[in-house]
């Protein structure tokens, strides 16, 4: 898979480690920043990732900030983006199985790195269930 990834300063450490993890698993990774620990504004990076996923430049995305909410709120302004916030593996599974989330968002300040890796693995491996869930997704876009 070609996966885009972004974070703000709060998610930088996990993003850096997840890039190495994903490359080690054979994925292509496109890093949309930030690459600095200086305080920054999450929309600057979320929009770059959102554009890339929406245009098909990457297959899917991963975003991290402190709570995950800033990234999720910003990404979900992009047509075609379904950014799902997850904080355990069950939610990471359901956000793909039921919501077909094309961006996985995680709250770096509230989950361990080990949990973040397990969520990424679960979300990548899970298939969208379709059926009634597709009908519901079809009703989302305004
Ligand atoms: C940064 O302090 C924090 O506000 C940000 O990472 C995120 O949690 C926003 O939603």
Give an overview of the whole structure:
- Helix content is 44%, strand content 17%.
- The protein contains six helices and five strands.
- It has helices at residues 12-24, 42-55, 69-75, 89-97, 113-125, 132-138; strands spanning 2-7, 28-31, 60-65, 83-85, 103-107.
- It has a five-stranded parallel β-sheet, with helices on both faces.
- The longest helix has 14 residues, at 42-55.
- The radius of gyration is 14 Å and the shape is globular.
- The structure holds D-ribose.
- D-ribose is lined by residues 8, 10, 42, 65-67, 69-70.
- The active site is at residues 65, 98.
- It is an enzyme of class 5 (isomerase).
- GO terms for molecular function: ribose-5-phosphate isomerase activity.
- One of its GO terms (biological process) is pentose-phosphate shunt, non-oxidative branch.
């Amino acid at each position: 898979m070609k996966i885009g990834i972004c974070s703000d300063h709060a998610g930088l450490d996990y993003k850096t480690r997840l890039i190495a993890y994903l490359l080690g698993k054979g994925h292509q990774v496109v890093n949309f920043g930030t690459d600095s620990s200086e305080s920054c504004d999450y929309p600057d990076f979320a929009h770059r990732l959102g554009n890339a996923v929406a245009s098909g430049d990457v297959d899917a995305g991963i975003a991290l900030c402190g709570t995950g909410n800033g990234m999720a709120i910003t990404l979900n302004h992009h047509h075609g983006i379904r950014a799902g916030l997850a904080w355990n593996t069950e939610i990471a599974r359901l956000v793909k199985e039921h919501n077909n989330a094309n961006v996985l968002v995680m709250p770096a300040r509230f989950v361990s790195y080990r949990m973040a890796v397990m969520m990424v693995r679960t979300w990548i491996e899970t298939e969208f269930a379709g059926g009634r869930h597709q009908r519901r997704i079809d009703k989302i876009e305004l």
